[in-house]
């Protein structure tokens, strides 16, 4: 029986000119042995609908061609199934692909998928909705929300959004955190939860996070003075933000975040803003819940 491999391409991810040439894909997956489908997304959320269809069509491997947002939309259908996720990194940051050492070079990434060396990785959920790289409710969520108003999805747009957000960021949300039997209250600058050790562009807030340890790495940074904020930014660029005494790391299996004034918190999930209806947020790890193609070591 032929191997069924479906490719879901997000044309607007990254530089926004993504195409997957049929001839190239067929060179790696010849028609005699493989049944290949290439589908293009047309709107936000479309990758999920296309993936659901591909599962019904019997695809054994479904390849997300885009960045972390596209991976999220595809992989959310594959959690706790036997269907294997492949990745062709075509996004801006490509955090998860980079953590898994999947190269941006199309041919190299295709040959990884062809080898079908699948491993199981952890996934996580935020109020029941899966995420794979990271989620956050602090400064990062505000940057993402600003970034989504840009027309281009590139590093420079992230930098512009970061400066714009710095100017207007206020600490109006007071939250209560419950994790590992600890309860604490704070007005967070950062409350960032990572499954993967990379946010994209080779940058990391949680360098010790692992996709296979059954734990989520949380970085907690309370309200900072302007001077400390500047120091944090500089140290972060040199991967030394842990030097700041206000920066704390925790490893958790689950985490509850309650907004104490019942306001709705801004959230980012895998680099996309999500609409949140509740002031209570439950974040959980789902160990070994996704099969994914990686390079053989
Ligand atoms: N045809 C389309 N038009 C507009 N938006 C789309 C289309 N197809 C997919 N999208 C949306 O594009 C968004 C961005 O995708 P993705 O995150 O993969 O790229 P990126 O932001 O450039 O990469 P990264 O997250 O790695 O930085 C996703 O939210 C997805 O829903």
Could you explain how this protein is built, in words?
With 297 residues, the chain is an alpha+beta fold. It has two domains: 3-116, Probable inorganic polyphosphate/atp-NAD kinase, domain 1 (Rossmann fold); 130-286, Tumour Suppressor Smad4 (Sandwich). The protein is built from eight helices and 16 strands. It has helices at residues 22-28, 46-56, 68-75, 95-99, 106-115, 139-147, 155-168, 226-237; strands at residues 3-9, 34-40, 61-66, 84-89, 118-126, 129-131, 134-136, 175-179, 182-186, 188-194, 216-222, 248-252, 254-259, 267-269, 272-274, 280-293. The strands form two sheets. Strands 1, 2, 3, 4, 5, 6, 8, 9, 13 and 16 form a ten-stranded mixed β-sheet that branches. Helix 2 (46-56) crosses helix 3 (68-75) and helix 6 (139-147) packs across helix 7. The radius of gyration is 19 Å and the shape is globular. The two termini are 28 Å apart. The model has no long low-confidence stretch (mean pLDDT 93). The protein binds adenosine-5'-triphosphate. It comes from Aequorivita lipolytica.
Taken together, the total number of domains comes to: 2
- Subunit arrangement of the protein: single chain
What is the C-level CATH assignment of the largest domain? Mainly Beta
Total beta strands: 16
Strand content bin: 25-35%
Helix content: 25-40%
What binds here, in terms of ligands, is: adenosine-5'-triphosphate
The low-confidence parts are none
Q: Which architecture of the largest domain does the CATH hierarchy give at level 2?
A: Sandwich
Structural class: alpha+beta
How confident is the prediction overall: mean pLDDT? 93
**Main sheet?**
10 strands, mixed
Cα-to-Cα separation, first versus last residue: 28 Å
State the CATH topology of the largest domain: Tumour Suppressor Smad4
Shape: globular
Rg measurement, Å: 19 Å
